[in-house]
Amino acid sequence: QVQLVESGGGLVQAGGSLRLSCAASGSIFSIDVMGWYRQAPGKQRELVARITSGGTANYATSVKGRFTISRDYAKNTVYLQMNSLKPEDTAVYYCNAALTIVTTKNVLYDYWGQGTQVTVSS
Q: Residue 101 class from Cβ within 10 Å (0-12 exposed, 13-18 middle, 19+ buried)?
């Protein structure tokens, strides 16, 4: 019913920038929170940033000041602007959305994208 499609990953040198995008589509009634998670090899998936329907953003300490999360509410799209990238940022980045669908408007569902690889070389 719902699909999250990510784009923007790739290979970049340390100090460079990337911008990730995630577009949600399908039988969506409303979207509450959208966010980005990442998982590096051998490590647990961790929250990178999230943004509420009201525009309130939260960031992991490790990315605060370097990454910026934003939303285009009309397009059901969330972005992650990543600046001053470090090799430690290398991971698969996953888009996440908590949303309701048209058939059950009062029930929140958690959806995930397939992930996009971000590799930062030194």
A: middle
Q: Which two tokens stand for residue 45?
A: 């998936």
DSSP β-bridge partners for residue 67: 82
DSSP conformation class of 40:
-
**AA letter at 84:** S
CA atoms within 13 A on the CB side of 65: 3
Q: Are 6 and 22 in contact (CB under 8 A)?
A: yes
Residue 122 host element (H or E): none
pLDDT tens string 18-40: 999 999 999 999 999 999 999 99
The Cβ of residue 79 has, within 10 Å, a number of other Cβ atoms equal to: 19
Q: Which two tokens stand for residue 61?
A: 């300490």
Vertex 16 angle, CA 13 and 21, to 5°:
110
